[in-house]
């Protein structure tokens, strides 16, 4: 269910007060707005955020404007939840400073120039009503009384066939990630939005070369429990073939690359986790479970990051250890992988 029921748009006016902000400080009502207007640093941060927001609106097609405004309104609500009015003044200012740095960085990624191509992010906000029994969560929710999902995904500003194919492919990739099931074949958002859960899903482009384009899908999931969880997927698209990249596009079939990488990954996890936690790599799985996990990570390009120096294998929360124990990615230099690589595969630059 799409919703456009929040008051038309965010008002971004220049302040007439000495400490300018992106809104009229003479009308500041909330503790957060007063803190911004009372601090030159926060006012500048608010103005910088607003400039990037307006740049996104200006670069996007007009038909995307209402959803982009909705995305900003959700963020404003989340800002006030993360930095509540009852905090001490110094703590509130510190909290707001961090929130504005993060939002400005996010907005900058909404308009990207990568590999000579401009990408502008489309946005959608979806909600589903909470059950009456969950009414105590209203003050913690981005939209009180609703579970909310905000999604942004990069679209290429080109009508060429190869980029039109990319634009069509990104949306179902985001839907699969939101369903937390990469085998899901759904082509819409039905069932993705959950009551009492606030999620943000963002697809941003990382690299473009003559052969492929890569993007990161970040899924921030907040069920208002002990802590939110962030999941990450990589999405690789072959421009010429107009399809997702597979393992056979990178590695020579039958070369033994899978077993070699599994052995390397197993050693990395033992070094990173053994003896560091009561729930370490040795106790997290039975033998069969550990082997299945190694195979799943090694053979799934969504768990790869193709970097200029090599291939990184990274881990989802709880995939190989407890949440706080998640190890750093395993990075394998391209030189070590050379015997297994397809000769024609374009390495990232």
Structural commentary:
Strand 5 (212-222) and strand 6 form a beta hairpin. The protein has helices spanning 31-37, 40-59, 65-82, 89-108, 161-178, 247-250, 257-273, 281-284, 287-298, 334-337, and strands at residues 111-114, 117-129, 146-156, 198-208, 212-222, 229-238, 243-244, 304-306, 310-313, 330-333. Helix 7 (257-273) packs across helix 9 (287-298). It is α+β, with helices and mostly antiparallel strands. Helices cover 36% and strands 21% of the residues. The protein is globular and about 70 Å long.
Topology readout:
Blueprint: H1 31-37, H2 40-59, H3 65-82, H4 89-108, E1 111-114, E2 117-129, E3 146-156, H5 161-178, E4 198-208, E5 212-222, E6 229-238, E7 243-244, H6 247-250, H7 257-273, H8 281-284, H9 287-298, E8 304-306, E9 310-313, E10 330-333, H10 334-337
Helix pairs in contact: 2-4, 7-9
Measured as a percent range, the helix fraction is 25-40%
The assembly state of the depicted protein chains is: single chain
Structural class: alpha+beta
- From N to C, what is the helix and strand string? HHHHEEEHEEEEHHHHEEEH
Mean pLDDT: 88
**pLDDT < 50 runs, ≥5 residues:** 1-19
Largest sheet: 7 strands, mixed
Short description:
The chain is an alpha+beta fold.
Defining key terms:
349 residues; alpha+beta; three-stranded antiparallel beta sheet; 21% strand; disordered N terminus
